[in-house]
Design a protein that fits this description.
heterodimer, A: 603 residues, alpha/beta, FAD/NAD(P)-binding domain, Flavocytochrome C3, Chain A, domain 1, Methane Monooxygenase Hydroxylase, Chain G, domain 1, five-stranded parallel sheet, 17 helices, B: 245 residues, alpha+beta, five-stranded mixed sheet, two-stranded antiparallel sheet
């Protein structure tokens, strides 16, 4: 008999980034018992890395903004594959969620009349991102954390969930291990909220932290939930490229929002050469107009550097591929040039972009107030994830909810910058609220003892094997395969090759062994995370193969254009009864007439 | 390829000590890169806490050549690689294993500090008005990434082990951020003296020196808080004033 402790809650939330914390706070407000399980220490989740801001149509800087414009911007950015109900709720509710944070102690930058300041960002028609310099994510997670610790939420730090448990068709809890001592714990619950974030560790060059191993995606998939949009992985156009140690670390879009420009090695602003038709009317015709936009001129249109992330990333790739890149395989991002336009430019840059200044100075020996940065695309965000109901955030599995990056729908084929911080607030709250009300009316659920026994047995297997290979080599090779074969530009034969390699990694992952014992053993943790990464990698590759067109974040070399035949469905991924991965096409529900009209008006 | 030696604290309890590992070095490398290389190739079970590897989450705190630092922000070109580079867990907290310390005390302390309590909203829509200058002062403190290096270096905690009496620089800064928040109306001054042990701090400024976010912990945070405590409890005029008012 395996040993484990049992904990009982009405709702458990898995993941304590912005979405998880917001969900836990809301569930606790619904007077149910809440457990919050987090893989790392509280307040360390990937939300701390968000820099630019949180998108909400507060209209503090430009009164022409409202939820309709935000809705239309989000749908346009997502190439209309979005769950329109989520896009609607998100645009309507984001302002209240931001104001609520202020009531909990967040201190956003201010306008001259003392309200919350908003900045320009790619794909947003008006200045919309509430921010705190370039450390908005830290401000948000700290505010939620400091508020949350007073809300009678039981927090389980450094615990990793390895299996969701079901009672018949519905959720009954989760099985986890405590990282510190290696003990297993059963969390019995009537509702579970997944808020585990993204999958960036499936790629070699990534802005994501170690935790981003797609646990929620894999847990939900194994529990029978449907994943959608898994082909849409966002590569942020500007990650650091040099020195090698920092490759992939994010350089905020805020640099471009403050007037930073992209140049190739000949000094040319190449983004003006390729402006997509559906954005032409909103894009500056000259460098002069683009500059005026970044300085708040309401009659100017945005510079092409602020086009959507998928497009900018591909333009950078093109410059590099055609031999016009920077010395270390990127392009130049120049904010120092604004000294031609502004007095005290150096001070201005340090005040607006303090962490960028600090990051380049300390890690790259570069003073961004004096010289350009070298940047290139980095794996940043997963649009795809668990399919949920737009209103309640419940998945196909009764009692299983998802919010934030591991959920899917809001962003469609491509996410706009700033829409993830608002996503996790709006849908974190909704998931917490609906999980609490579900738990109140649900009958107690019983997890199957045999299943728990089996899961513990499987988790401990790496200690028993004594094989030659450890988990790190398999993980590194998987990262390289995904980077090389299922990255920004995708080709059929390469992805078929990737699938074959993934099969091989799965076999090796089943055989890999770990040394030492169960107490704080990073090797063991990696061996267990690997299984989630492999599921996610396969789902991305199979979904990408299914969509034979280029749309949003997916670019297929053989099919470089958007194809209307692929515009009417999401690609779904489900585990078949036999355990293999099944791909299906899910037709989009028809758009409500009033929302259709908004999109037409804003075109 | 160049190599460097890393003398890493391994093990737990009385079965712990330094062990030497060699890692290959490359341009721009930081200590955390070396730890990862060693973990992947030579010591799969090496315990280390890290998350973002970009100086933003404050997870990979350690003592490098005896100095509290973030492993992800310590570049090898700042260190003398002619000697082994020592890497140890933070010593002001109980040890768990290898480079991981038990920092849970910090989370318990934070809960004891009275939470944010805003004044009534300024506008009918439930929002407030603040000038940037007032926000700036507090934003400095809110840059804190909770790496606890300031707690680690503080002699009150590290040498005197007064964890039960003193909340340490991190939480004095947290209290300062709340006390100086333009909207906050809670009063924490009495707690600072009676429960949080602000008197234990004798302003050696070690915390400020190790802060990776360059927060002026003592001058901008702790000293103004000490002044508030002094004004409240020790200023004879204001004491008289309170008695008769």
């Amino acid at each position: 008999m395996a040993q484990y402790e049992t904990h009982e809650h009405d709702v458990i939330v898995i993941g304590a980034g912005g979405a998880g914390l917001r969900a836990a706070i809301e569930a606790a407000a619904g007077s149910v018992s809440v457990g919050l399980i987090t893989k790392s220490l509280l307040g360390k989740a990937h939300t701390v890395m968000a820099e630019g801001g949180v998108a909400a149509a507060l209209a503090n800087v430009d009164e022409r903004d409202n939820w309709r414009v935000h809705f239309a911007d989000t749908m346009r950015g997502g190439q209309y594959l979005n769950n329109w109900r989520m896009a609607e709720l998100h645009a309507k509710e984001a302002p209240d969620r931001v104001k609520e944070l202020e009531a909990w102690g967040a201190l956003f930058d201010r306008t001259s009349d003392g309200r919350i300041l908003q900045r320009q960002f790619g794909g947003h028609r008006y200045p919309r991102l509430a921010h705190v310099g370039d450390r908005t994510g830290l401000e948000m997670i700290r505010t939620l954390q400091d508020h949350g610790i007073h809300q009678s939420i039981e927090v389980y730090m450094e615990h990793t969930v390895i299996r969701l448990l079901k009672d018949g068709g519905r959720i009954a809890g989760a099985l986890a291990y405590e990282r510190e001592r290696g003990r297993f714990k059963l969390f019995r619950a009537r509702a579970v909220v997944l808020a585990t974030g993204g999958i960036g560790r499936a790629y070699k060059i990534t802005s994501n932290s170690w935790e981003y191993t797609g646990d929620g995606h894999a847990l939900a998939y194994d529990a029978g939930a449907l994943l959608i949009d898994m082909e849409f992985v966002q590569f942020h156009p500007t990650g650091m490229v040099w020195p090698p140690s920092v490759r992939g670390i994010l350089v905020t879009e805020g640099v471009r929002g403050e007037g930073g420009v992209l140049r190739n090695k000949h000094g040319k602003r190449f983004m003006f050469d390729d402006i997509p038709e559906n954005y032409r009317a909103q894009t500056a015709a000259s460098e002069e107009e683009g500059w005026r936009y970044t300085q708040g001129d309401r009659d100017a249109r945005r510079p092409p550097e602020l086009l959507t992330r998928d497009h900018v990333a591909r333009c950078i790739m093109r410059e590099v591929r055609e031999g016009r890149g920077s010395p270390h395989g990127g392009v130049f991002l120049d904010i120092a040039w604004i000294r031609e336009r502004l007095p005290n430019a150096a001070e201005h840059i340090k005040r607006k972009l303090p962490s960028m200044y600090h990051q380049f100075k300390q890690l790259g020996d570069i003073d961004i107030t004096k010289e350009p940065m070298e940047v290139g695309p980095t794996t940043h965000y997963m649009m795809g994830g668990i399919r949920v109901d737009g209103d309640t955030q419940m998945s196909d599995v009764p009692g299983l909810f998802a919010a934030g990056e591991c959920g899917a729908g809001l962003h469609g084929a491509n996410r706009l910058g700033g829409n993830s911080l608002s996503d996790l607030l709006v849908f974190g709250k909704r998931a917490g609220e609906h999980a609490a009300s579900y738990a109140k009316q649900a009958r107690p659920a019983q997890a199957d003892a045999g299943e728990i026994e089996q899961a513990i047995h499987d988790a401990l297997a790496p200690f028993e094997r004594g094989g030659a290979e450890g988990p790190y080599q398999v993980q590194q090779q998987l990262e390289e395969t995904m980077q090389d074969l299922v990255g920004i530009v995708r080709r059929e034969h390469e992805m078929v090759e990737a699938l074959a390699r993934i099969e091989d990694y799965k076999r090796r992952a089943r055989q890999c062994s770990v040394c030492g014992h169960r107490e704080y053993n990073n090797g063991w943790h990696t061996a267990l995370d690997l299984s989630s990464l492999l599921t996610v990698a396969e789902a991305i590759t199979r979904s990408a193969l299914e969509r034979k067109e280029s749309r949003g974040a997916q670019f297929r070399d053989e099919y470089p254009a958007k194809d209307d035949r692929y515009g009417g469905f999401n690609v779904g991924v489900r585990k078949s009864a036999a355990g293999s991965m099944h791909i299906e096409r899910l037709p989009l529900p028809p758009l409500r007439d009033d929302l259709k009209q908004i999109i037409e008006e804003m075109k | 390829m160049a190599q460097a030696t890393f003398r890493i604290w391994r093990g737990e309890g009385d079965r712990a000590g330094f062990q030497d590992y060699t890692a290959e070095t490359f341009e721009g490398m930081v200590v955390l890169d070396a730890i990862h290389q060693i973990q992947a190739e030579q010591a799969n079970d090496l315990a280390v806490r890290w998350n973002c590897k970009a100086g933003k989450c404050g997870s990979c705190s350690a003592e490098i050549n005896g100095r509290p630092r973030l492993m992800c922000m310590t570049r090898l070109n700042q260190l003398d690689l002619g000697e082994p580079v020592t890497v140890e867990p933070m010593r002001a907290f109980p040890h768990i294993r290898d480079l991981v310390a038990d920092v849970s005390w910090n989370f318990r302390v934070k809960k004891q500090i009275r939470k944010f309590k805003p004044r009534p909203a300024d506008a009918a829509d439930g929002t407030w008005r603040m000038v940037q200058k007032d926000a700036d002062r507090v934003q400095e403190f809110r840059k804190c990434i909770e790496c606890y290096l300031c707690q680690d270096v503080c002699h009150v905690l590290r040498e005197h082990r007064l964890h039960e009496e003193f909340i340490g620089p991190r939480f004095l800064i947290y209290a300062a951020a709340l006390e100086m928040h333009p909207l906050d109306v809670e009063n924490r001054v009495q707690d600072l003296r009676d429960r949080h042990g602000i008197g234990c701090c004798n302003i050696t400024k070690c915390c400020t020196y190790v802060c990776p976010e360059s927060i002026t912990i003592t001058d901008n945070g702790i000293i103004p808080l000490k002044e508030r405590v002094v004004d409240r409890f020790f200023d004879p005029l204001s004491r008289l004033f309170r008695i008769f008012s």
